[in-house]
Specification:
mainly alpha; Farnesyl Diphosphate Synthase; globular
Length: 287
């Protein structure tokens, strides 16, 4: 049975979601500030959904427990699209599905991606597996996002396809050290082997003298995806897609900084300063 939130409960849920996003201080927040309030709150709700399932996948619980919790959210997605959501966040998302014509398969793709992380630590996946992972955890978010932005077109989906992969590959390069500490390594095994790295143990790979050549190769792929996203974005109406442009600009700046730092000081954090994030948001919000 559907559990409809009272107006005050819905407002409290939206405010809690908004506070969560603001506290996170992510590039996402600065990009979404360009949206009208209703669309911004819709994006914050999608962010909260992603945060919940990502936290499940990254928890210290046993794989079976994590998969069981993700299965519960898979059931909640089914309830959302049947009009029978029960959890407060799911009730908020249920209202957004009809408003923005969000698709069930994109929510399920996100859960699929989290299940990939939850089942076992990913170590040197194939290129095909890595691409599927990027589509699930990043491009699926893009497909939900462009519809909330108000652009439901083939070109917008191409933006989601390319930009999602560009962002996720940048994340992978940025988080190599952090992921290795969790026993994860997302660099594709074909690239590792092409550069003479046979090992798949994260710590071993990160100490390998030929690692920089692999990282440069992945960075080149990410740069190509950024270019593809920009080309597809040029075919979309400018104003609604401004948040995507800001996300692309901030992450591209991150990638440039990673390449400047190099791949031998992986524990040295790289980030885009807040003033630059604000400037990029203004630049892409006003032009």
């Amino acid at each position: 049975m559907s559990v409809a939130l009272r107006n005050d409960e819905a407002a409290e849920t939206r405010e809690a979601i908004r506070a969560q996003v603001v506290a996170a201080g992510t590039s996402f927040y600065w990009a979404m500030r360009l949206l009208p309030e209703a669309r911004r709150d819709a994006m914050f709700a999608v962010y909260a959904f992603c945060r919940i399932i990502d936290d499940i996948a990254d928890s210290d619980e046993e794989p079976a427990q994590k998969l069981a919790q993700l299965a519960e959210w898979r059931g909640e997605v089914a309830a959302i699209f049947a009009g029978h959501a029960t959890r407060p966040l799911a009730c908020v998302l249920q209202g957004l599905v009809a408003t923005y014509r969000l698709r069930r398969e994109d929510f399920l793709a996100l859960i699929d991606g989290m299940e990939m992380d939850a089942r076992e630590d990913i170590r040197a996946p194939s290129i095909a597996e890595l691409d599927r992972y990027c589509d699930n955890v990043a491009s699926a978010v893009g497909r939900l996002s462009v519809r909330i932005f108000g652009v439901d077109s083939e070109a917008a989906d191409r933006v989601a396809y390319a930009l999602g992969r560009a962002l996720q590959l940048t994340n992978i390069l940025r988080d190599l050290d952090e992921d290795a500490q969790r026993g994860r390594l997302y660099l594709p095994r074909e690239s590792l082997r092409a550069h003479g790295i046979i090992a798949t143990d994260p710590a071993t790979v990160l100490r390998h003298p030929l690692l920089p050549a692999v990282c440069d190769e992945i960075a080149a792929v990410a740069k190509q995806r950024f270019r593809e996203a920009a080309a597809a974005m040029a075919e979309c109406p400018h104003r609604p897609m401004r948040p995507a442009a800001v996300m692309g600009a901030v992450y591209h700046a991150t990638l440039v900084r990673l390449m400047r730092r190099g791949w031998t000081r992986l524990a040295e954090p790289v980030s885009v300063p807040k003033p630059l994030k604000i400037w990029l948001a203004l630049r892409h919000g006003l032009l």
